């Protein structure tokens, strides 16, 4: 038996249950809230979306967990020392969706949309000088599936694309950096910096005042990763000092972003409500189903999360 364990509103959970059940007609999938004690003992797989860890603990026969989200740092952190194998969602559609967002908001900054919006509010008729995309360097933090797909979109649009990862990676057509010195080298060249990193102990607070100060004058930032990777107060200081020109922030330490947060009203910050790469329920359900059915057939797990790294 498979348990669907989420903290979603019941109506949203029902949509996921329908999609998953359609993809796995031979499996019995039951929301945790509908399982009695006897049924819980029969559960060997849990499909989860930010589950309450207390609910997971009440599944004594659980062998592994499949998340319907790509990001699992919250799940790993909340489960603590359970050591249950966790499979995260790896969906090519998610990479395509993220790449669209990266290209769209890079264009937003590249074509000076924030400045023109300000001119309109002030009733100012002013034209800014045009730069060619090949004269603009976009730095990608993170060269995994999301970063690799985003780099293709950016390169096709003509931008000069460079990338950084914790360990050495190679992406065709992208000058790649790694390690601490590589991060400094990339920051020094990135006129538009795009963060796509997973949240780990190493990346938490990575973009602080010291590292933001390494960016070129008037650089801009796009954070589509996780809020705690960026020190928001340091971004505000960099913008107020004139070091940075604009920041597009889609993720935050606390979500929803509190109504009294200073980020909402800062003139050089664009706030987005975590919309850069929403999970596609249908493609995600198909991938989860494929992994579970392969496990039923062969008894082997798909690649699991490195619990020490958090992804």
Structural class: alpha/beta
Largest sheet: 7 strands, parallel
In total, the number of strands is 12
User: Treating each run of at least 4 consecutive H or I residues as one helix, how many helices?
Assistant: 11
- Outline type: elongated
Mean pLDDT reading: 96
- Beta-strand residue percentage: 15-25%
Low-confidence stretches: none
Helix residue percentage:
25-40%
**Main sheet strand line-up:** 8-7-6-9-10-11-12
List the keywords.
311 residues; alpha/beta; five-stranded parallel beta sheet; 11 helices; 12 strands; elongated
What can you tell me about this protein's structure?
The protein has 311 residues and is α/β, with parallel strands linked by helices. Helix 1 packs across helix 11 and helix 5 packs across helix 7. The protein is 36% helix and 17% strand. Helix 3 links the parallel strand 3 and strand 4. The protein contains 11 helices and 12 strands. A 7-stranded parallel beta sheet has the order 8-7-6-9-10-11-12, sandwiched between helices. Strands 2-1-3-4-5 form a 5-stranded parallel beta sheet, with helices on one face. The two termini are 26 Å apart. It is elongated.
List the helices and strands and how they pair.
Elements: E1 2-6, H1 10-23, E2 29-31, H2 37-40, E3 45-49, H3 53-57, E4 64-67, H4 73-79, E5 86-87, H5 92-110, H6 113-121, E6 137-141, H7 145-156, E7 160-165, E8 175-178, H8 179-189, E9 192-195, H9 209-212, E10 219-223, H10 232-240, E11 244-249, E12 269-271, H11 281-298
Parallel strand pairs: 1-2, 1-3, 3-4, 4-5, 6-7, 6-9, 7-8, 9-10, 10-11, 11-12
Helix pairs in contact: 1-11, 5-7
